Amino acid sequence: VLIINKNTKEYEVLSLGHRNQLGMYFDEEKETLIMSEMGPKGGDEININKNPDVKMKNYGWPISSYGDHYAKHYTKEQIAKAPLHKSHKKFGFEEPIKYFVPSIGISEIIMISDELSEHEFLVGSMGSEIKEGDLSLHYIKLNKNKTKVIDHNIVTIGERIRDMIFLKEKKIALLFLETSSSIGI
Q1: Buried (b) or exposed (e) across 82-103, using 16+ Cβ within 10 A?
Q2: Rounded distance, CA 104 to CA 122, Å?
Q3: Burial, 9: exposed, middle or buried (Cβ in 10 Å; 0-12, 13-18, 19+)?
Q4: β-bridge pairing 136-142 and 120-125
């Protein structure tokens, strides 16, 4: 993750070890960056970076992941360089706050709560297996310190959810449903 100054074009590396981020939410007041990342075969993650300006963090890819390689696409030498250990912390990396095995085809992440309770998020999923939590909306509630998930509910939509926004004044989420090219509320 890079921070780029649009005026000077200067940049700095904020964090490393990400595979494929599909959603980011930055809480300026709490200086917390929450990211949804698509893993390899399994291993989608939700990662949190508190005080990102203080210390650069590494989230482990391609050394650690709760997913697996699509082995037919890689040589033994490539897999040896990217072993995908099933622990992040043991190898000096940041653990995800939540991971999904099997993968849900994770997409956008948005905060849905008001100023009094800034711990509730919606996470979209694409994929194709409803029984695995794909084609669904995931409600995630974190504890006040945003250090662990305290509630996780799944609402099956039956569509690939590509993007979302939360309209605070109306208290509704708008979903871009990719399969039918429609808007969900």
Answers
A1: eebeeebeeeebbbbbbbbbbb
A2: 13
A3: exposed
A4: antiparallel
pLDDT in tens, 118-146: 799 999 999 999 999 999 999 999 998 89
CB-based contact 51:31 (threshold 8 Å)? yes
Residues 4-52 pLDDT 10s? 999 999 999 999 999 999 999 998 888 889 999 999 999 999 999 998 8
- Of 152, 62, 145, 51, nearest to 98 by C-alpha is 152
Q: Measured between alpha carbons, how far is 102 from 21 in angstroms, rounded to an integer?
A: 17
What's 69's DSSP letter? Answer: -
